Automatic annotation (TrEMBL):
Family: Belongs to the MCTP family.
Cellular component terms per the entry's GO annotation: synaptic vesicle membrane
Protein name per UniProt: MCTP2 protein
Keyword Oxidoreductase: no
Organism from which the protein derives: Dicaeum eximium
Localization of this protein: Membrane
Matching InterPro entries: C2_dom, C2_domain_sf
Main location: membrane
Keywords: Calcium, Membrane, Metal-binding, Repeat, Transmembrane, Transmembrane helix
GO molecular function: calcium ion binding
One Gene Ontology biological process: regulation of neurotransmitter secretion
PANTHER family documented for this protein: C2 DOMAIN-CONTAINING PROTEIN, MULTIPLE C2 AND TRANSMEMBRANE DOMAIN-CONTAINING PROTEIN 2
Domain C2, chain residue ranges per copy: 1-59, 93-204
Amino acid sequence: KSASPQWREQFDFHYFSDRKDMLDIEVWRKDNKKHEELLGTCHVDITALPTKQTNCLELPLEKHPGSLLMLIAVAPCTGVSISDLCVCPLGDPSERKQISQRYCIKNSFRDIKDVGFLQVKVLKAVDLMAADFSGKSDPFCVLELGNDMLQTHTVYKNLNPEWNKVFTFPIKDIHDVLEVTVFDEDGDKPPDFLGKVAIPLLSV
């Protein structure tokens, strides 16, 4: 019930400079669980923004009254990676030793925002639900930690896919929950949900 809402939410997107990406933003109004109304859209050309600084943008909503105030920073991404099992980032003993020293108890308060790293090895799924008429699925796996999101490649026509990928996330809040969701790729349509697990970091 506000015409001037404040969200104060931060989202991190992993952007690669060789892509010509637009950031698409939609503002929605929700009356109840069933009724939603689009209040406007706006777009930001990421390639046009100066890097390594915070850009304050006031974006008018297209074809609708109102504007959106945002802070957007384009900066080198640290700590986030996707790799194969054979080149696992924390598999090198010397690198593990450096990280252990970086996060030892005596360094706990050196950088409050630098909590640590989470490394997840997504190996495979077993006995997934068949989402296609052929009795198969085209599964891929999405990992979300806070507002960070990474995903595997799609394994086509398979109910027992093997991804064998290693994902590394920087941890910003020890109370975050790692959510791992399996979807079925469905061409231009939204993907079908095949299953999900949630793992609180404090349980690891």
